[in-house]
Amino acid sequence: MILELDKVTVVFTSGPPLRRRVLEAMKDVSLHVEAGETLGVVGESGSGKTTTSRVVLGLQRPTSGTVRFDGAPFPRRRRALAGRMQAVLQHPQWSLNPRMRVGQSVAEPLVVLGGPGRAEAAGRAADMLEQVGLERSFADRYPHELSGGQRQRVSIARALVTRPGFLVFDEAVSALDVSVQVQILNLIKDLQAEFGFGALFISHDLGAVRYVADRIAVMRAGQVVETAETGVFYRGPSHPYSQQLLEAL
Q: Where are the domains of the chain?
């Protein structure tokens, strides 16, 4: 098992002591992802999806509960997992420096980790661009010279260049045109089949989740109300909220 959340709760507090406001962003959430599997996480805005992704990536510490990665407790210092876990975000420009050429951006994680020299890192970055369907010449371009779909391919290449065991796709196709969405979803499935990484695919788009996920977890008000195999879920979800989501689709 590559990732496991066991009864994870995240509580945020705000305001002065006498008028303290408490928000439970996650309530006893238990999830797991196997190597080579994609777990889709769906739910409306405010359901806890974003907090879940932050916990999984080590950007938010749980108030209670346990997170395990590759069979071991999540380290207190996220640096210990550098290169083993990566994220692909909704907007590619969030992970691409506009002043850096594409090849430099893709190679940067390797350089930061102190692995290969710059020449070897550049070669591996060019190889990864080919893996995501872009010519090696794209390494010399800047992000603003690319289309939205091409920029997202670059973001995926950057995420995969360190060969991580786990990826978080956080609304990774929601900003793209429908035809480009399908291309990126196919790319994700092909790359997962080749590299074997586990993935958390977070989205409000049930159509995209159905296409790419092996299992689905439905969140509402910080809780997981249902988990099921994708085929079973779409044939007939058991929770009333899940049924409402499908009706809206």
A: 1-75+197-249
